[in-house]
Design a protein that fits this description.
The protein is α+β, with helices and mostly antiparallel strands. The protein has 14 helices and 17 strands. It folds into three domains: 56 residues, no CATH class; 106 residues, Rieske Iron-sulfur Protein (3-layer Sandwich), CATH 2.102.10; 248 residues, Naphthalene 1,2-dioxygenase Alpha Subunit, Chain A, domain 1, CATH 3.90.380. The strands form four sheets. Strands 11-17-16-15-14-13-12 form a seven-stranded antiparallel sheet, sandwiched between helices. Strand 2 and strand 3 form a beta hairpin. It starts with 8 loop residues before the first helix and ends with a helix. The structure holds FE2/S2 (inorganic) cluster (FES) and fe (ii) ion (FE2). The site of fe (ii) ion (FE2) has 5 residues, from loops.
Amino acid sequence: MGKPCSVDVKSENENKNKILLMISNPITNTDWINEAITTRKPGFSLEQLFYTNPEIFNLDIESVFKRYWLLAGHVSQIPKDGDYFLYNIANESVIVIRDGGEIRAHYNVCRHRGSRVLLEQTGNAQRLVCPYHGWVYKKDGSLTHCMYYSKDFKKKEYGLDPIHVRTACGLIYISFAEHPVEFDPFVRDLESHLKLYHLDQAKIAYHKSYTLSCNWKILCENFCECYHCGIAHPEYTARLMYAGVAASPSLKGKGDVIEKERSAYYSRNGLCTDLLSSNGGWNTESWYYMARAAFQPGYVSQTKDGGLVAPLLGELKGPDAGSFAFFSRPNGIMEASSDHAALLRFTPISATQSQADAYWLVRQDAVEGKDYDVERVTWLWKTTGEQDWTICVNNQAGVNSSSYRPGPYSEIELSGGVEDFIRWYLKQLRPKDAFLKTNSQSSQVIASAA
Ligand code: FES
Ligand SMILES: [Fe+2]
């Protein structure tokens, strides 16, 4: 639009020199990060910089979030052809769209000059039309229309960049990685636990999004331990046997008997009771793990009165299926009873900000007001989740202080998963690779601009 403006050669050269200086110099110096990783004291929480430093945050995105499978949503969010939602994370925006029988994911970045293509968080689009100069893409990401190019212009070279997408029991996962870690074992393990639940035929009864002033790892650490359950979650602790034992170790004998008896009951009802993970156990190597836990006597669901609040999911026969839970590092968590499931998705925003999305699933044919009431379905995880958000934000506030230094994990945190999570996390950090990638991208920009 408008006539070409005159070029300020001096400021253009200054800018170019500044960029070249940045590339040739400090960004490759990742020694301080390597030092922080290698000098971490085992069994202690991390140094402050892991929770506050923007460069570490960028490294987390490159080394963790762009390498693993990320929980993006549920198939019921996009039931019809052309339905889509956006998943925004750090600088990225991903279009997750239904294209006939397929679910596809594309970077939400126009291949003309880079505008976001879709701006609404959810919607239906039979064609993806860039709002800047009108380039038009099909749902499969291919470019079909752009004005003012010669007949020789190779449209097929300018499709939207694809992102890996898979589903497991109705949950949609994406991966930015060129070669993602294996997803099939996760599908297999989740199906062995949830095959009777038919979560692919569930719907979202309620969704709530929270913006939290804390680093994403503070959320993950919190969800790896039940040391805090007795203090922070009286409602959850009263319902889950393992949480009750964590809060009152004197209950261990009784708890073991109940867990064993219930586990045999679940097995007789065709429910898997194994602890499953990507590495055969609960350890540092696993990017996911899942297990089934028993309720306290008098409870069969994660509800206020302990009874069911919605029709049984899928083809479950009895009301007590225990509480099935999984954690897929770094951002997906589920706790499912026989009548509903609570799904949590964590999304990093900055070093000291995250988003937590909570979704509650019930069977698709259940009618609100008749078969279930949203308040009753959401009660436990709304209560428990909001308690967690508060303690995590308080945790970050203290970590920000000049007085903070790493503190020792208790036995329950060491055995329950926090130490495993931290070791897994530190193993992922590859400052050199991540910053080399940043450099090579910058170099390409300079090369084509020169
Ligand atoms: S940036 Fe999308 S059409 Fe120009
Ligand atoms: Fe908690």
